[in-house]
Amino acid sequence: MPPGLLFHGPKCNFLVVLLFHHSQNHYICSLITKKIYEAQHSMIKITFPDASVREYEKGVTGLEIAQSISQRLAQEALAVSVNGETWDLTRPIEEDATVNLLKWEDEEGKHAYWHSSAHLMAEALQELYPGIRFGIGPAIENGFYYDVDPGEGVAIKEGDFPAIEKKMMELIAAREDIKRESISKKDALRMFAARGEHYKVELINELEDGTITTYTQGRFTDLCRGPHLPNTSYIKAVKILTAAGAYWRGDEKRPQLTRLYGITFPKKKMLDEYLAMLEEARKRDHRKIGKELQLFHFSQTVGAGLPLWLPKGTQLRLLLEDFLKKIQREFDYDQVITPHIGLKQLYVTSGHYAKYGKDSFQPMHTPEEGEEFLLKPMNCPHHCEIYKAFPRSYKELPLRLAEFGTVYRYEQSGELHGLTRVRGFTQDDAHIFCTPDQVKEEFLKVMDIIFIIFRALDFENFEAQISLRDPENKEKYIGTDENWEKAERAIVEACKEKGLKAKVVLGEAAFYGPKLDFMVKDAIGRRWQLGTIQVDYNLPDRFELEYTGADNQKHRPVMIHRAPFGSMERFVALLIEHTAGKFPLWLAPTQAVVLPVSEKFNEYAHRVVKELKRFDIRAEVDDRNEKVGRKIRDNELKRIPFLLIVGEKEAENEEVSVRKQGGIDQGSAKLITFAETIAREVDEMMNPSARSN
Ligand SMILES: [Zn+2]
Ligand SMILES: [Zn+2]
User: Fold this and answer.
1) How confident is the model at residue 37 (pLDDT cuts 50, 70, 90)?
2) Ligand in nearest proximity to the CA of 228
3) What is the value of pTM for the model shown?
4) What is the pLDDT of residue 39?
5) Cis bond before residue 227 (omega within 30° of 0)
6) Cα–Cα nearest to 640, from 685, 572, 582
7) End-to-end CA distance of the chain
8) Is 409 among the catalytic positions?
9) pLDDT above 60 for 532
10) CB within 8 Å of 33: residues ≥ 6 apart
11) Which letter does DSSP use for residue 509 in this model?
C-alpha cells in the first residue's frame, strides 16, 4: 500500500501518513515514527533472469547482490546489467530493477574488462610519458586500444611495450579502485583543459551537460561513460600487441596519433593461449599462403583491392562454384547472368545509389548526353528486373534466381585487406521471390544448403542469430505488421524445426526485413560471419513487383536475399586460414604430383599423369632436374595431398609409390587402383545429396 500523502515537521520524529484503505474504500490517517516508515520503504525488488525476485536494501550494488548469492559469483562478476543497461558493479541501485550479473562469457562483461584495461594502459602511459595526451580508448572485439599523442618528438615503439606492461602490472598490484563521478560540462571542460587534454576537450564540447561522467583510478582520470571493473586487480595478464598510426577521428587532415592495441585476461593461461592462436593465425594468413600456393595476386597496375585469380586459385574457386551450382540445381534454382554495370537510375530506384553512390565508384559517362552508368554495387536490382520481365503468377513462385555476380564497392585504401576487404568481389548470390506463406519453407531450404556446405568443409562449429524488429519502435520498419509477424515467426519456427539454437536479437533487423545470420568458428577459434538469409519488403515495393494470386488479384511477392559463402573472395580467404592451405582432397587445385626419381623415368611419370587425368584427378609431373628429396620438400610446402614417387620398380609394374600429405608413406599401389580409389573418394565428397542426410 503506497503512502497517499505524508507530511512532517523538520524536527519531528513522526510522520502523518494518509493511506487509501482498499477493503474499506476510504482513507485512513496514521501516525508512525520516521524509523518505521523508512524501514518499510527502503527495500527494493531485484528481478533475476530466471524471473525470481529478491528484496534488497535500496542502494545495493551489483557486487553486493552477487555476494548475497555466492562467493564464486562475486568473484566472476565483472559488470551488471540493470534494466538492460550495463553498470559498474559498485554503482548503487536505487529502484526496483531487473538485474543480470555479467561475467567473462558475456560480451558486455568482457567489454567492461577490456575497456578498464584500456584505462589501465592509459594510466601506465601517463606515468611513463608525462607529456602524453589521450584520444579515445575503447574495447574492441579482441582486446582494446588507446589512441595517444605521446608529444613532440616522442614515439612509442614495440621495444617500449615491456616497460608499459611492467607498469600496468604494478598498478594492478596496487589494487586501485576505479571510481565513477558525474561532472558538469563546465567542470569537465575546466578539468581537462587544465591538463592540456585538448582531444578530450573537443569530445566534451560535443556532449550534453548532465550526461558527463569521469572514471578515476590512482592519478588517472578519464572522460568516460563506463562501465568499469571495481578495481585494477581484476586484470591478471596483460600484453601490448601492436602500435599503429591512426588519424584523430579518422580524418587525415587531423593529427596522426599512435594507436596502441592490447589485450588482457583474467588468467595467465588464457593470455598464453591467445598469443599462441595469434602466432598460428600469422602462419595461416591467407595473403601469405595465397602467395606460396600461387592462388591470387594483386597488381598495383590493375588497381588496389582488385584481385587477379591465378590458375590454381581459379581452379579452387571454380570447384566451389560448381559445388554450389550443383546443390542449387537440386534445390530448383535458376542460374542467371547479368551485366557488371547498369544505368544510374536503376540504382536510384533500388536505393543503392543513395547508400553507395557518393562514397563509391562514380558514374561513367557515355558519348550520349546525360547517360550515366554505375558499376553494380549489388545484384538484387538486376534480378528484380528479371522478375519483372514477365507478368508472374503465384504458380511460378517461389522463383529462385541465382548468379555468381561480381559487384564493385569502393573501400578506403586503408581498409583493404587481402581477399577479405576488396573493391571488386563475386557474391554467390540468389534471390528468392515467394509469397508471404512460403517464407518458412524457403528458409528451411536455404538452411539445408548452408548445412551441406558447412558439413562439406568441416565447419563444425557455428552459431546463428535471428535479427528481429524492435517491438517498441515498429514505425521504423517498412512492410505490413502482418507480414513482419508472419516472417519473424517463420524464421523462429524454421530454426526450431532444424534443431538450430539461434540467438534472437530484438531491434537488429534491417529496416526492410528480419534475417538469419550464421557465424562459423575456424580451426583456431576465430569467428567469421558467413551465410545471411535476409527477408526484404523494400525492393519488391521499390520495383513494384507483382504476381497474380489464386484470387486473381495482384499481390506483392516477398524477396529473400541469400549468399551462403558471402563472397567467393572472402570465403576462399576463410578456407585458406581454416585449413592452413591444406584443402580437402576434392578442393585441392592440384591433387597429386608425380616425382620421377631420375630423368630416366620422366616418360613414365607423364604417362601416370595422363592416366590420372582420365579419372579427372588433377595431377602434374615435377620433372625438374633436382634430387627427389628436394622435390618432396618443395611439393610438401605446396600442400599437395598426394606425392607419387616413380622409379624403376614402379615403371616396370605400372605402380606408384604413394606419399600422403603430412609425410605418411603409404607404400606402392597399382596405378589403376590408386586412381580408382582417389576418384571414388572425391566423388563421395562432391556428391552433396549422398551426404546431406
Ligand atoms: Zn573509458
Ligand atoms: Zn540481394
Assistant:
1) low
2) 1
3) 0.80
4) 59
5) yes
6) 582
7) 62
8) yes
9) yes
10) 13, 14, 15
11) S
